[in-house]
Design brief:
heterodimer; A: 476 residues; mainly beta; Porin; 2 domains; 16-stranded antiparallel β-barrel; two-stranded antiparallel ribbon; 26 strands; B: 296 residues; mainly alpha; Cytochrome Bc1 Complex, Chain D, domain 2; two-stranded antiparallel sheet; 2 strands; 41% helix; globular
């Protein structure tokens, strides 16, 4: 009897073990994450191609998708112009991601104690909502409009452009005007990671501290959509790509918020085959631009924010630069060398970055006439690297790993600690696409990302911030 | 004395043996699609195992998981996707009714098929395309039971002359190309509205005035091959048995003059003659550019 009982218990334990095993497998698959940045089922619906045609894993493009994009959202057959579509066809896609996420920071400012403490929070949440609409207005006239919201549905124009494609019948002349993503081969708008930490490329936005606890006054990121005019050219098979863009010094913000400054972004790359390994690509990019060091007019606003113990008003005064009055422009520079290496199911992208800001910008010193730089001021410069690898079991499952680092080679002030602003970011993620269709996209997304940055805490020590996220990423 | 038993035995053997042979043939299982196929294009060797992964990334949405052209998008396409199980291919360099060369399918992948939803896959590597060709061949037993046809010979193109163009025009009438393609090559001949393809789907004859890209290529040699091999699966027949090679080239020269929106040596020569200029001017109808790519 005891033996029988023992066998039953063993059997039950075996069932529980199996259940746990299968649950774990299911959970792992469930957690596999994917967040398509700009996948457009509207295109898939138009051409009847599965999303896996244009995306290695949506939203990351495949060489075929890159060519389609570079060719002005045209496949090159007679079905490209909208005149061939049903009159009811509307090229629009929406994308949103309900998630559960956990955010943790090692040193957040608090009211009590020494003024900082570790804070961890978690809960269910939403991403913002993107409405992607794009396509062809006619043969060789393409467009893209992306009203994008935060998670409270407050909208802005993330991207708006029109493009003249294949001007004079050559793929080497394509002209784009509007607000658009720079010609980054590793597209941040098509990033496969979604967390607050790992949802952007650190190197695409890195700006050093001017001094401990003091950020630079200007904002620029080559990962941000920019306002400008772009010429782009490519070979018929898209193996060779070149582009140059003239950009406003506004980091993509409308209304000419800073100055009359401009910048230029230049990119070139070449792909080549290595046997059966696949298509490899190497390239380089450079950005040279100018940013204002001060404003000719600052708007001072005083508002009442409460009353004191005697019933008197408590006021707050804020000073904001008046749009368009920025002056004393100085140079900022960003350079990069990249390689995208494919070894069958495994691929890795490697990028070396170098950045340098003018000393006036780096030290937040207004370059007013006859002004001089403060003692110990330097032009801050830094180097960075990115390694992003993917392992694609099949078009439905992809594993993601990324490591980024930034190292200062010259601080803005001699008095700054040598490692001030240095950062390391590590990200792991996975996405599972339960179906591959030409109508819609869906992915289970799981991701963990952590960043360590020197001097970023309220007490100017190392700040560690991490994000854990699980979600359903879908677009239609 | 006749050995009745021996004669009977011989007769029996003589009668039964052929029957047995036929019976053996009849009992042979039909050829089955091979799980492993190779494709050879120049120095490239494509492997079906690698092609399968590519097929189920890029192709199945139209051509279907089993390759029979019933992908999820097929109901929405007005030229149905190719049925690889039937292994009937439009663009070949081999005679009508035969299997194409591996390079024919490879070139179709690179070029795409104009006037259909099949795009160009030139963004893929050459090895990728060779692997896909190999995998496509696994769908049909024809690739096991048959060999591709011998490619037709394309003789050197003769010198372009006005006489050649005029003779091509005469052949256009004589061969009744106009019945489908129309007198002016607009694809609006009297039979055009009645044509169907092998899927019983309506199919429109090629409109020469819209583009200089025919379904199977844009060069003169491609045009030559189209009407010498025919487009299997469509009403476009092969004229290899009724047209001599030099006449086929005359027809090519004439057809180029129908593409009056696309400059070509043939059109230039034809426009240099009073007769040709008058005809072309009469054909041209100025209109507003709709941006559709279709020129009036």
């Amino acid at each position: 009897m005891d033996s029988l009982r023992s066998k039953e218990i063993q059997s039950d334990l075996a069932r529980v073990g199996k259940a746990l095993l299968y649950s774990s497998i299911f959970l792992m698959m469930f957690l596999v994450d994917c967040r398509p940045a700009t996948a457009l089922p509207a295109f898939a619906r138009k051409y009847g191609l599965p999303c896996s045609s244009c995306h290695e894993a949506w939203p990351m493009l495949s060489p075929f998708g890159q060519q389609f994009k570079d060719n002005g959202f045209q496949l090159g057959n007679d079905r490209d112009a909208p005149i061939f579509q049903q009159a009811g066809y509307w090229p629009i896609t929406f994308r949103i991601t309900p998630v559960w996420h956990r955010e943790s920071t090692s040193a957040a400012p608090v009211d009590e104690g020494n003024g900082q403490a570790k804070i961890t929070t978690s809960g269910f949440d939403l991403s913002g909502l993107d409405f992607h609409t794009g396509g062809t207005l006619a043969n060789n006239f393409s467009f893209y409009v992306l009203p994008s919201s935060d998670n409270t549905a407050s909208f802005h124009f993330e991207s708006v452009w029109a493009r003249l494609d294949n001007v004079f019948g050559t793929p080497w002349i394509n002209i784009k005007l509007g607000k658009f993503e720079l010609d980054n081969l590793l597209s941040e708008k098509r990033i496969l990671t979604l967390t607050n930490v790992g949802g952007v490329y650190e190197n695409y936005h890195f700006q050093p501290f001017s001094s401990p606890g003091v950020a630079e006054n200007y904002t620029f990121g080559i990962g941000d959509n920019q306002l400008g005019l772009e010429w782009m050219g490519h070979s018929a098979d898209d193996r060779t790509r070149v582009s140059a863009a003239l950009l406003s010094a506004s980091d993509g913000t409308v209304g000419l918020p800073t100055s009359r400054g401009y910048g230029g972004f230049f990119a070139a790359s070449r792909a080549f085959e290595i046997g059966s390994l696949g298509l490899q690509r190497v390239g380089a990019f450079a950005f040279l631009g100018e940013e204002p060091t001060y404003y000719q007019y600052n708007l001072t606003t005083t508002s009442t924010i409460g009353t004191d113990s005697l019933g008197g008003p408590v006021t707050s005064t804020t000073t904001t630069p008046y749009a368009g009055t920025g002056i004393g422009n100085k140079l900022i520079q960003r350079y990069g060398l990249m390689g995208m290496w494919y070894i069958k199911k495994f691929d890795i992208t490697t990028i070396y970055f170098h950045g340098k800001d003018n000393a006036w910008l780096g030290t937040n010193t207004p370059a007013v006439p006859l002004a001089v730089l403060p003692p110990g001021a330097h032009a801050p410069s830094w180097n960075g690297a990115l390694f992003e690898s993917h392992y694609m079991f099949n078009p439905q499952i992809i594993l993601i790993n990324r490591y980024e680092l930034d190292r200062m080679s010259q601080q803005a002030f001699s008095s700054n600690p040598g490692n001030l602003s240095n950062a390391d970011v590590l990200t792991f993620g996975a996405r599972y696409y339960p179906f591959i269709s030409s109508r819609a996209g869906f992915a289970y997304h799981a991701e963990y990302s952590i960043i360590w940055q020197k001097g970023a805490s309220p007490t100017f020590n190392q700040l560690t911030t991490s994000s854990l996220l699980f979600g359903f990423d879908f677009d239609f | 004395m006749l050995n009745i038993k021996k004669i009977s035995l011989n007769v029996a053997v003589a009668l039964i043996l052929p029957c047995a042979m036929f019976a053996q043939q009849a009992d042979q299982p039909p050829a089955k699609p091979s799980k492993h196929m190779e494709a050879h294009i120049g120095d490239l060797t494509g492997h079906s195992e690698a092609g399968a992964k590519l097929y189920y990334r890029y192709c199945w949405g139209c051509h279907g998981a089993r390759g029979n052209g019933d992908g999820e998008n097929a109901p929405y396409l007005n030229i149905l996707p190719r049925n690889f199980v039937a292994a009937v291919f439009k663009c070949r360099s081999t005679p009508t009714g035969t299997l194409p060369l591996d390079s024919d399918i490879f070139n179709s992948l690179y070029r795409g098929l104009n006037f259909s939803n099949m795009p160009s896959w030139k963004a893929l590597t050459a090895q990728n395309r060779a692997d896909l060709v190999a995998f496509v061949k696994t769908f049909s037993a024809r690739w096991v039971a048959e060999k591709p046809g011998d490619p037709i010979q394309v003789p050197p193109e003769p010198a372009l002359t006005v006489a050649s163009i005029k003779h091509g025009g005469e052949l256009f009438q004589k061969l009744e190309c106009w019945k489908c393609h129309g007198q002016e090559g607009r694809g609006d001949g009297p039979s055009a509205s009645t044509l169907t393809d092998s899927n019983d789907q309506p199919i429109r004859p090629y409109n020469f005035t819209t583009d200089n890209r025919a379904k199977c290529g844009r060069t003169n040699s491609d045009l030559y091959k189209i009407f010498m091999t025919g487009l299997d699966g469509t009403p476009m027949p092969s004229f290899a048995d009724v047209v001599k090679p030099e006449e086929a080239w005359d027809l090519v020269h004439y057809l180029r003059t129908l593409q009056y929106n696309n400059p070509s040596p043939e059109l230039t020569l034809w426009l240099s003659t009073p007769e040709g200029k008058a005809i072309i001017e009469a054909k041209k109808v100025e209109n507003t550019n709709t941006g559709s790519g279709v020129k009036p």
